[in-house]
Amino acid sequence: MKEKVALITGASRGIGKAIALRMANEGIKIITPTRDEMDLEINESIDQYLKTLPTHIDILVNNAGINRIGSFQNQNDTDIFETLQINLIAPLRITRSIIPGMMDQQFGRIVNISSIWSLVSKPGRISYSISKNGLNGFTRALAVEVAPYNILVNTVAPGYVNTDLTRKNNSPEDLEGICKTIPMKRLAEPDEIAKLVAFLCSGDNTYMTGQCLVVDGGFTCV
What is the pTM of this model? Predict the structure, then answer.
């Protein structure tokens, strides 16, 4: 895998940063566009950036996402459309651009970072759950189409992860209560998610495709 090239979105912090570090340590060349380079809210920016990429990308991790928390009645069109654009439309556009090169070389690994809120939900997560559920469906449908080209497509759905965003959205008291609801009694660490993503993108994964793998410490089991 040392000669492989990986494009990872949302790699400046949290899960994306952990994925980039782990793959870089394995000798994979990492491409991690900043928002100034590729603004996922703007399709023209996405398309323009993709034109600057090398002739082939071996690994794609669609990690970037936003979570606008709010009740359905209080979310305006902008909140909904921006969530769908960044969490679903942008990954579709990026993947569509990169897939032909993977097909030509008969190799590709794509991992979409979803969420447990695509499988279960809670108040204030309607647009987020819709976008991540759509990402799960995209994974399954694309996996079927590109399997003959040795391109494997999977989704990883993390639960509560110890990131800046989690701490921003939850007070210390909230996090203490959340940990009590998780069978393992703690949050996941970003590198625990990164280990699974690295396996799915590696040469060791030769047959798993079209799957949504939940990493939540057992949260969705209770």
Answer: 0.96
